[in-house]
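Sample log: Carboxymethylenebutenolidase.
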Amino acid sequence: MTQDIETSRLTVNGLNAYLARPAGGSESGMLLLPMVTGIGEQLREWAEAIAAIGVTALVWDPFHGPSSDDTSIPDLLAKMPELDDAVALDEQTQLLDHLLGELGCVKAGVIGWCLGGRFALILGGKDHRVANVVAYHPTVPGETPPNHTMDAIAHAGLITAPVMTMYPTADELVPRSRFDELQSALQARDTGPSLIHVYPAAEHGFANKTRHGEPVNAEAFAISWPQVLEFIRVTTKTCL
């Protein structure tokens, strides 16, 4: 059963964000870390779907304004090398503070897609307040870019919360060897269950509806998304 929701743009400590939540708020929350689209239409749709199951969704703005609504994907891709890991993690932590503070959430997790999936793993390893970590096709490339100063796979091994991650075997950015390293790090943890999905022949970014012209991508999302929503619902609920 879906709930009535309310949406708004807001500023948290000077940071742009998008908020979708059940009417009247919720004690359950999720921090959403976008892919290269920023707070574009796709991210807002996902935030609203999460709000509709009774969970407050707050979306980080990686590019401080530009998104796929008004900027081409090539231009957004050109901005990615400008992202600084330490700065991004500080911004995300401020938004998590806001979820667990002014927005009234008692439990909050983090979900990210592509570049946001990588950051979700890092944040989950650094901040043990998170109730879950969801990483859709996280971008942990074979060759580490200069601005990737934090090791996402090492941080994944430090996560204490339940983790769900999705890997498409036709991921052109993340070789299977890197996924195997990530899987090993997650499964070596002493605490926190690991739910690891492998989608044969699906491509990097398969969750994005712009990639659903390929049936294998559409099917991978159709299978994964309901499970992600249920995982979020269960891991952020505040009472049994």
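Observation: The radius of gyration is 16 Å.
Observation: The mean pLDDT is 96.
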